[in-house]
Amino acid sequence: VQLQASGGGLVHTGGSLRLSCATSRRTSSNNVMGWFRQAPGKEREFVASISWNGGSPTYADSVKGRFTISRDRSTNTMYLQMDSLKPEDTAVYYCAVGRSSSAGAQSASYAYWGQGTLVTVSS
Questions:
Q1: 18-54, pLDDT tens digit by residue?
Q2: Element (DSSP H or E) covering residue 92
Q3: 82, 69, 75: which is closest to 33 by C-alpha?
Q4: Residues pairing with 95 in the sheet
Q5: pLDDT digits over 58-71, tens only?
Q6: In the chain, how many H helices and how many E strands?
Q7: How far, in Å, CA of 77 to CA of 62, rounded?
Q8: Measured distance CA(112)–CA(24) in Å, rounded
Q9: How far is Cα 42 from Cα 49, in angstroms, rounded to an integer?
Q10: If DSSP codes are grouped into helix, strand and coil, which group holds residue 89?
């Protein structure tokens, strides 16, 4: 499975961005998909995940109420709508496919990773 993340960029505080993650084949469609991020000098952290049918969205407390995860099974694409962005959201964002239909917030539960897209939020 190959993943291609896109949509990152530079925005001001309070701005919005929409990240996309295209997957190469349908076999990922029954597994959880997720977004993680890694800020400079920090470890990779969980952002959000979504189940195979687009249900059960789960968010890190730091983004809850500001970010929305979704997926389109017909196009094998996952999205992350990011609103009310803050400077602390600055990071490289990675999309990933879980090892199963019940992968959670641990990065070890994800088998396939995209190359990352940089999000920079200026103050």
A1: 999 998 865 556 789 999 999 999 999 999 999 888 8
A2: strand 91-98
A3: 69
A4: 35
A5: 999 999 999 999 99
A6: 0, 11
A7: 24
A8: 11
A9: 20
A10: helix
